[in-house]
Design brief:
By secondary structure, this protein is of the alpha+beta class. It is built from six helices and 13 strands. One of its GO terms (cellular component) is extracellular matrix.
C-alpha cells in the first residue's frame, strides 16, 4: 500500500473522529451543562475589530486586542457562579476598574477565548455560556490571573434555541436538580430502571426533524419517593403531540 493511500485513509479517519466528537459535544442536556459548569451567564457578542497594524496579512483581532481568537462580549445576566466570574470581567470601556458585583444596569464586558473549532460570534448575537474554571491535576483551582473564558464546541447555546422551560431551568430549576443530587445521564436506548442519582436521557428517542422534548421541555429533579425523575410539564405533552409520539 502506497504512502499516499495510507495518508488519505488517516485523513478520512480523523474527519470521522472529529465528526463524532462534534456530535458528542452537541448531545448534552442543558441541565447537565448547568450542573457541570462553574459559572453560567448570558452575553451579547460585540463587533470583531480589525487590526490595522497587521500589514499585508490583515486579520480580525477580537475586541481590539492583539491576542488572536479572543472576542469581547457584554455580560447581560449571570445564572451561576457570579463570584468566580468577577476577576474575568471589567466595566465597559474601562480596563482599570475592577468589578465587585454584577448589575444589569451597568454594562460589563468579558473576553472569551475562541477554541479551535469555535466560530466567531456575530455582532449582537445573544448566547448562554457554560464556563469551567481551570484546575491543576490535583483538582485545586488555578489563581484568578490564570483563568480564562474558553468557548469550545458544546458550551455555548444561542438564545433563540432556548425554550420557555429551558429559561426556567436556567433561572432556578436546573440548580434545584443539581443540589438534590439528580444528574442527567445520556443513554442511547430506552430504560425503565429507577435511580436516586440520575435521570436517563435517551438521545435516540427523537430523530430530526422531530423536537427533542426531553431537552427542550423537561428537567430532572428528586420526586417524593426519593428517586430522580423527569418533570412532566404541559409543554412536554404538547411537544409529544407535535412529534406524534405516545
Amino acid at each position: 500500500m502506497s504512502g499516499s493511500v495510507v495518508c488519505l485513509m488517516l485523513f478520512v479517519a480523523c474527519l470521522c473522529l472529529l465528526q463524532q466528537a462534534q456530535g458528542s459535544f452537541m448531545m448534552i442536556h442543558p441541565q447537565k451543562m448547568f450542573c457541570d459548569a462553574d459559572y453560567v451567564f448570558k452575553f451579547k457578542a460585540m463587533q470583531m475589530v480589525e487590526d490595522n497594524n497587521a500589514g499585508r496579512t490583515k486579520r480580525m483581532v477580537p475586541g481590539g486586542n492583539r491576542q488572536p481568537k479572543k472576542q469581547m462580549v457584554e455580560v447581560q445576566r449571570i445564572y451561576k457562579g457570579e463570584k468566580m466570574m468577577m476577576p474575568m470581567m471589567k466595566l465597559q470601556r474601562d480596563t482599570d476598574t475592577p468589578v465587585d458585583s454584577f448589575s444589569a444596569a451597568t454594562k460589563i464586558e468579558a473576553g472569551i477565548q475562541l477554541g479551535m473549532y469555535q466560530k466567531e460570534f456575530k455582532k449582537n448575537e445573544k448566547c448562554v455560556f457554560f464556563g469551567k474554571m481551570f484546575r491543576y491535576r490535583n483538582d485545586t483551582m488555578m489563581p484568578a490571573s490564570s483563568q480564562k473564558m474558553m468557548a469550545n464546541l458544546g458550551n455555548t447555546m444561542v438564545e433563540s434555541s432556548i425554550t420557555k422551560i429551558m429559561r426556567r431551568g436556567l433561572r432556578r430549576k436546573y440548580a434545584k436538580g443539581c443540589k438534590q443530587g439528580c444528574k442527567v445521564r445520556t443513554v442511547y436506548w430506552n430504560t425503565t430502571t429507577k435511580s436516586k442519582e440520575f435521570c436517563d436521557w435517551n438521545v435516540n428517542q427523537f430523530r430530526p426533524p422531530q423536537i427533542d422534548c426531553r431537552k427542550t421541555t423537561q428537567f430532572c429533579y428528586r420526586g417524593k419517593d426519593g428517586y430522580c425523575q423527569w418533570k412532566a410539564t404541559k409543554d412536554y405533552k404538547k411537544c409529544l403531540k407535535r412529534n406524534k409520539l405516545p
